[in-house]
Amino acid sequence: MYAEPRRVAARKPVTVPGLRAMKSAGQRIVMLTAYDASFAAQLEAAGVDVALVGDSLGMVVQGHKSTLPVTLDQMVYHTALVARGLSATLLVADLPFMADRDVAHALEAGARLLGEGGAAMVKIEGAAPHILEAIAALTARAVPVCAHLGLTPQSVHKFGGFRIQGRARDAADQLVEEALAVQAAGAQLVVIEGVPSSLGARITGSLDIPVIGIGAGPDCDGQVLVCYDMLGITPGKRPKFSKDFLAGRDSVAAAIAAYADEVRRGVFPAAEHGFA
After folding, report:
1. Residues marked as binding?
2. Residue 4 known to be catalytic
3. Domains contained in the chain, CATH given
4. pTM of this structure
5. Choosing from 44, 116, 178, 193, which is the catalytic residue?
6. What are the pLDDT digits (tens) for 210-240?
7. What DSSP line would sit under 161-218, residue for residue?
8. Which residue numbers belong to the known binding site for Mg(2+)?
9. Which residues does residue 258 pair with via DSSP β-bridges, in sequence order?
10. 266 — alpha (psi -120 to 50), left (phi > 0) or beta?
11. Counting beta carbons within 10 angstroms of the beta carbon of residue 111, is it exposed (0 to 12), middle (13 to 18) or buried (19 or more)?
């Protein structure tokens, strides 16, 4: 049975420069993952600012234990699906594991995610020298970049698991330095994941570009969650930094709208969703 998509009132498209203007105005940025056109349409209807096609799809869609098996072809495919469900929401896509191993591969991945996938920005994990070089090369060629620091899932084996980062003073200082380095390399957005709330606030205050938190406390310029986590349908234990927005509501649309509203009003995340 075919159901005609719900018509959504037109809104001004979110742009990469517009995100920085939102930070300057103190307007919180709402980001949420999506992996297909139907979920993308729900984000669009709720007025979500940024849709992220994360390589988290390897875990929540494909059922892997990490994000590492996700390929570039799969990322391009899912990005194109999401793009078809969006009009005003800005689309960001992850560079999958080892797509950033050198500048040539990063440029190829960026070209495919924007050209074939329809993304407006790519996300890249870490701040190692070759990553900074890739960020500079991508942005020089008109591929906007979102950096991802802190608990970077592609480094799960290096970290020995999905562990909170930046608790020690020297580790916190290093993350601040890395955030400044990716900004200097040309990144126009940063996702900071799995760090103490105080460090999330410190990094946000140190940068001119917007900082999006996930498990990084309430003081970031915006928030992102995996859509299945915020709907309470991811198998297993829900992450401490997430919240089941579907509980007590009668639809996915209502849950996404509630998430967007709570992020914008500074209600989510609350203290219990952060780390000391």
Report:
1. 55-56, 94, 123, 125
2. no
3. 16-265 (3.20.20.60)
4. 0.95
5. 193
6. 999 999 999 999 999 999 999 999 988 889 9
7. SS-----SHHHHHHHHHHHHHHHHHT-SEEEEES--HHHHHHHHHH-SS-EEEESS-T
8. 55, 94, 125
9. none
10. left
11. middle
